[in-house]
Amino acid sequence: MLRYILRRLVILLLSLFIAAVVLFVLLRLLPGDPANALVGVGATPEQIAAAQAQLGSDQPLGVQFLSYLGDLARFDLGNSFVSRSSVLDEISRRLSVTLPLTLAAFVLALVIAIPLGILAAVKADRWYGLLLSVVSQVGIAVPVFWLGILLVYEFSLNLRLLPSGGFPLRGYADPGRAIESMVLPVLTIAIVMSASLMRYVRAATLEVLGSDFLRTARALGESHTGALMRHGLRNAAVPVVSVLGIELSTTFLGAVVVEQVFSLPGMGSMLLLGIQQRDYPNIQGVLIVSTLLVLLTGFLADILQRVLDPRLRKEAR
Amino acid sequence: MSAESTELPPRRRRGNATFWLGLILVGVIVLAGIVSFFWTPYALSDMAGGRLEAPSAAHWAGTDRLGRDLFTQLMIGARIALIVGCGAVAIGAVIGVATGILAAFATRFLDDALAAFFDILIAFPTLLIAMLVVAAREEASLGTAILALGIGLSPIVGRITRILTKQVLGQDYITAARVSGTSWGAIVYWHILPNIVPFLGVNLALQFGLAVMAEASLSYLGLGAPPPNASWGRMLQEAQGTVYTAPWGAVLPGLALFALVIGINLLADGLRDRFDPARRDG
């Protein structure tokens, strides 16, 4: 197991390096010199040259790449062109909105999807089992921002229970309002996410229900529920966990749309603003931190899979 | 299950029902999109009605805050959604199928590298990749949105193509073809493509739904096709501010988007049941 973790860690670092290279290339493909974005329209050639020297974009690409890698290794993401403040500080401020949003939605989606998905599989021949799989099929096609708008209409404007958007300026120092403004965004993401998760849980459970080991357990005298609890769930969990990793990263990165619906100051709106203002350090910073989180999630999902399934551990050796 | 009185097994009947329901939903939207080329109730920028009118005989879906007819916008939106969907899937298919087949044929090292590359890119949602491509272009346009989404879809197509191609390459008839001196190009054309197209087709239909949804998201974020293109996503963004006084403006574009995406998914499900003998008989 330790050997597997070490090997997986090497792959993680390698992927990070590849991702850093891809990002570097991608950002150099953006039109124009970032220096132009720094000085603005109507700058003299001298001003542009000064900006280039400051950013180092007049250096050869190889030198730029090395200094970029060096900055990354020191977690130095530079300063925003627009606000001149540290990108890393800005990101950590915004992560304090996006991370709780994503994680809370993820947990809620699990709480909804796992029992309902199992129920949909176990009771596939009953009307409610069928209804549940229809609901999950329907839920996948619901645009997340549309659901957000509808929830705002009902719960903020009609019933006046919750704020329609925004985040308190004082952040979590104002815990009541901070939590209030998170409820609808979390609900929006969780509903859409649980629909697709439910499908995976249902499929994995159906697979297990048809398996020989479950039949054997029943033949050995275990009750249907008992066999499912003792042997079924752990087996069904293995394929679901790998999907969970992808789902979690998708949600984290997909939060950009939901943050827009509810005007939340998170990573997504930072990226959108960066794109609109051509604020390259901000775009780059958001992408690097997102990539890191996505790769870390995949890493953890893989390890968790090995913990759940001893057969995978044997193969890995 | 009780004894079946009809001649078809239940799975088959359900497959047919989803197929037809999907076909109807998609058909209505395709029809609206095609008709919009020849006729719409009003011109797109015609401020013919009062502001935020409720649906009526004159304005079937009501009007927006500038008094423009929403039904007209919905029809044009259908056209845009279909164009973006088809365009993005076409681009994604060309890039994805080419790289997927290349990976399947390539040496172990290149294959591993491409497979890892697909996996890394797939970890990022289509929408995010599309946002970056839009950012890389000077300004948003319909063409940019299509290109962006096509590039975003290509790793998903590439990954599936690679797996499907590898399955076909393992067959005896490929070895037979090689032994009889068939070139790789001819093998791809005569043996690989015909064998992967049915499965790939079903998957591309699903990608179509993804592309339509992502286009709506891009437009909602203000990164999609600029006005006067009426995209359902932008209609939703504009209607969000007036949702309390004019809820229909925010409900209808979302409903249209929902109908198209679920219609395509059902259609793909139905097609898979027809094409895949294992599922048909199972």
TrEMBL record, chain A:
One of its GO terms (molecular function) is dipeptide transmembrane transporter activity. CDD domains: TM_PBP2. It is found in: Cell membrane. Pfam families: BPD_transp_1 (PF00528), BPD_transp_1_N (PF19300). Keywords: Cell membrane, Membrane, Transmembrane, Transmembrane helix, Transport. PROSITE patterns: ABC_TM1. This is Glutathione transport system permease protein GsiC. It comes from Pseudooceanicola marinus. The gene is gsiC_9.
